[in-house]
Design a protein that fits this description.
Helices cover 73% and strands 1% of the residues. The chain is built from 13 helices and two strands, in the order H-H-H-H-H-H-E-E-H-H-H-H-H-H-H.
């Protein structure tokens, strides 16, 4: 009796993985930010209570100062500009996998370039002098970052080391210019003489006016977003940062793009320095960098590669920074507490990435 052999039944086809809906993706994106901010304020409140101060009064001052008065709002917008531009100076090279730690130095060199033209050509009309000051600031920042880019692409010098060293050189440069080249003897601290009237950004609204560098920054936000999302160069830069090996296999000139990212980041930081001169101080002075480097890095890391998220995160950081002084006056809490809260937000945000990865694997 013959036995008919039959093939074993094929296993059922595996169902394709269900793709999360857009709502779920949005929640995965927003919830970590909300939870991180809440936890940071809870921990910060415990620290404030531990030193014998009222955390509720402190947080009320921090969160409302920017919106209670026109002065607070304008100060927040003016703070937003350099924080955001320094964040771009960090995030644009990061898109190619490189770390620009020199935004502070590039800002100072940009301020030096802007103030030089603002003083030397002080008799020129605004329509000529003001664009020259802003362009000079951006070019000076680009050249300063270009030194690190050249060393990186030609001699494989680590860009973190070179940009940090350039920061220290820029501190000496601003001190020399403010103390020996164009010193303002009556300022009481190292500062240059004021730039010409034509080098100042016009203000908008009643006193205190908002300088038009804010509008220029909004325009720059749009240009950067379009460049990174809609141009082939922007796509290649993001591809280099996402997977260096794959980018090389596809013929992308990775080292040139990485160098270009550093130069563009330096130009943006240099523009921030020129705007600080033309819109806020009217001259260059020591201390004008005001922790913009560390704030830019915090904002850049919080954005996690999203150029669209940077302006909103930078605005939140500007609110905290402007409120820090009010918190110290009303609740006697040191302004450094705001920096601790910002660091805690970043820490909890990074931890949320680990938690999310574990949840998705389970």
């Amino acid at each position: 009796m013959s036995e008919t052999l039959t093939a074993p039944p094929a296993p059922p086809a595996e169902a394709p993985a269900k793709r999360p809906s857009r709502v779920a993706e949005a929640l995965w994106l927003v919830i970590p930010y909300v939870v991180s901010v809440v936890l940071a304020f809870v921990v910060g409140g415990l620290i404030i209570a531990a030193i014998g101060r009222d955390p509720f009064a402190a947080f009320e001052s921090v969160l409302t100062t920017s919106f209670n008065t026109r002065f607070g709002t304008i100060e927040t917008l003016h703070k937003w500009v350099p924080v955001l531009l320094c964040a771009y100076a960090f995030a644009i090279p990061l898109a190619t996998g490189k770390f620009n730690i020199g935004a502070e130095g590039q800002l100072l060199v940009g301020a030096t370039g802007g103030v030089a033209l603002g003083i030397l050509w002080s008799d020129l009309p605004m329509i000529v002098l003001l664009p020259c000051v802003l362009i000079a600031g951006a070019l000076a920042g680009a050249v300063w970052a270009g030194i690190a880019a050249f060393l990186m692409t030609k001699f494989q010098v680590n860009e973190i080391l070179s940009t940090v060293v350039l920061n220290f050189i820029s501190f000496q440069l601003i001190d020399y210019v403010a103390s020996h080249v164009w010193p303002d003897r009556g300022a009481g601290h190292p500062a240059t003489t004021p730039v010409g009237e034509g080098a100042l950004l016009p203000g908008i609204g009643q006193a205190p006016p908002m300088h038009t560098g804010v509008l220029l920054t909004v325009l720059l936000v749009i240009v950067i977003a379009v460049f990174m999302r809609r141009t082939s160069t922007g796509f290649e830069m993001r591809a280099v940062g996402a997977n260096l090996r794959a980018a090389q296999v596809h013929g992308i000139r990775t080292s040139r793009l990485a160098g270009a990212g550093l130069v563009v980041g330096g130009a943006v930081a240099g523009l921030a320095g020129a705007i600080e001169v033309a819109g806020v101080h009217g001259k260059m002075l020591e201390g004008m960098q005001s922790n913009f480097l560390i704030l830019g890095i915090i904002v850049g890391l919080m954005a996690r590669g999203s150029m669209l998220a940077l302006p909103f995160i930078a605005f939140g950081i500007a609110v905290l920074e402007v409120g820090a002084g009010s918190m110290q006056r009303t609740a006697q809490v040191p302004v450094e507490m705001v920096l601790i809260i910002e660091a805690l937000i970043l820490l909890f945000l990074l931890l949320s990435d680990i938690a999310r990865a574990k949840i998705r694997r389970s």
